[in-house]
Amino acid sequence: MSPELVSILVLVVVFVIATTRSVNMGALAFAAAFGVGTLVADLDADGIFAGFPGDLFVVLVGVTYLFAIARANGTTDWLVHAAVRLVRGRVALIPWVMFALTGALTAIGAVSPAAVAIVAPVALSFATRYSISPLLMGTMVVHGAQAGGFSPISIYGSIVNGIVEREKLPGSEIGLFLASLAANLLIAAVLFAVLGGRKLWARGAVTPEDDGAPGRGAEPTGRGPAAGTGTDASTDAGTGTDAGTVTDGRTGGTAAAAVALRPDRETGGGEGTGLGLTPSRIATLVALVALVVAVLGFDLDAGLTAVSLAVVLSTVWPDDSRRAVGEIAWSTVLLICGVLTYVGVLEEMGTITWAGEGVGGIGVPLLAAVLLCYIGAIVSAFASSVGIMGALIPLAVPFLAQGEIGAVGMVAALAVSATVVDVSPFSTNGALVLAAAPDVDRDRFFRQLMVYGGIVVAAVPALAWLVLVVPGFG
User: Fold this and answer.
1) Above 60 in pLDDT, residue 360?
2) How far is CA 38 from CA 29, 94, 199, 272, in A?
C-alpha cells in the first residue's frame, strides 16, 4: 500500500472515530500527524509542525476571547433584546430578526455554535410563546449563523480564505461571503413559506409588554388564533435539556461557552429587562465596531486586533472578564489546528497532489466537482464543517490547477455544501437547537431535524454545484 493511500485512510479513520466516539477531531489529527509523519513520511518534529496554522490560531483565540467578554458583561444579551424589541408589532418578523441577528454575530466574528447558543434559547422561547413552528425558528437561527459565517472577518471566512491564500488559489472573499449569504437566505425564505410563515403574517400584530421580552403576557391583537400557549417562557428557556450543557465531541463545540439566555434574565442596569447600556457594554459595542473598522477599513489582522481589544476591556473591567479566557473556544482551536497540521503533513509527503490527480483522473471534471461537494456535505453533517473544509480544499488543489473548473466557484460550492448541513441534529448547531427548544416532543423534533438535514444533504450540494461550478466550467 502506497504512503499516500495510508495517509488518506488514516484521515478517514480520524473522521470515523471523531464521529462515532465523540473524540475531538483536532486531538485525533495531531496524533495522526505524529504517527503518519514519523512512521510513514519520515518527518521530524519541525516537518510536522511546519503545517501548524499559527495565524488561524490567533484569529480563533482573539475573536472568541472578545466574544466571551461580550457574553460575560451582558453585551450579547443587550443585542438580542434590542433586536427583539424592533418587531413588537409583527410576530411574522421574529424568525427573520433571529436569522439576521445570528448572521450579524457570525459576520463580525462569533463562532457559529456560540452565536446559535446565544440566540437559540430566546428564539425558541418566542416560538413557544407565539405558536411558531420550532423547526422554523431553529432552522432560521442556524441558517442565519451560516449566512454571515463567511464574511471576511468571520471565523469560517478567515479559515477558508487563509487556506485559499496558502494554497495559492484564486479567491474572492466577498464572493464567498455572498454565495453563503444568498444560499442560506434562499433556504430561509423557502422554510418560512413552507413552515407557516404565511399564517404568521395573517395573524397580525401583537401588543407586547413593557420590555418586549417573550413570555410575559403579550397577547395577539390580529386576526389569527391566540398566540399564547399558557406557558411562561421565563421558565421555558430552562425546561428539559439545558442548552448550556450540550457538548459535541465531534467539533468540541460547547454550548456552555455561550451563556444560554433566559428572556426574563436580570443582568442589572436597565429598565424593564435589566438590559440597559452600562459603561462596560458601551465599551464592548465600541470594541466590536472597532474590530470591523480595523479589519475592513485598515486591513489589520483580525486575530491580533481582537486580542488587543479584549485585553483593553479585561484591564478596565477585570470582574466582567475574569472567566473569559476559560470560555475561549479552545476545543475549536484544537480542532482547527489539529486538522490543518495533519493536512500540512499530507502536503509534505505529496498526498495532496496524489489525491488531487486521482480526482482529476476521473476524466469528467464536473462529476469530480459534484462528488467533492457531496463528500463535504455528508461528512460535515456528522462531523466538523470547518474540519472537512480544511481537508477538502487542499485535496482539490491539483484538480483545480487543471483550469477546467473555476477555483472561486468551486471553493464557494464546497463551503456552502459543508455548512448548510449544520442543521443536522448530529452537528453542534443542530444539537443546540434541539436542546434549547422548550415544551416540545424532543423525539419528534429530533426526527424533524434529521429528516430536514437529510433533505439538505441530498439537495444543496447539487444546487451549489449547478449554480456556482457549472457556469465557470471550460
Assistant:
1) yes
2) 14, 54, 62, 61
